[in-house]
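Record 1 of the preview.
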Amino acid sequence: MLKEFKEFAMRGNVLDMAVGIIIGAAFGSIVGSLVNDVLMPPIGLLLGNVDFSNLFVILKQGAELPANATLAQAKSAGAVTINYGLFINSIINFLIIAFAIFMVIRWINKLKRQPEAPAAAPTTKECPYCLSTIAIKAVRCPQCTSELKA
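->
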């Protein structure tokens, strides 16, 4: 059984999949940082100093909260919240990752495309006298016996 497991684990597809998952997780954390630390602050600034990570709706009030409480303060006070700002961040993360994967797959498909083979040289031609089809190297038409110019 150990031998079978070793054969399974060492297959090319399993190793490729493992590498893909690890790189995907690393890429996801990079995109998460890009969205949370680079993209969302300027977008929030343009929208009037909005911090998307602190956009939430309180469903059930916990302990007393200040008027402009953060998500962390609401959670620590025991409030039940809908965190739609974090959801917006997740949507943006997904869109960036999906676009990046689309671009990589598009690039790979472009590399895989085979150049079109050139058209094959013609092997026949038409007799100018009787219009029958003859071999390209023929010097006399087999149909009308006319001499053909080379």
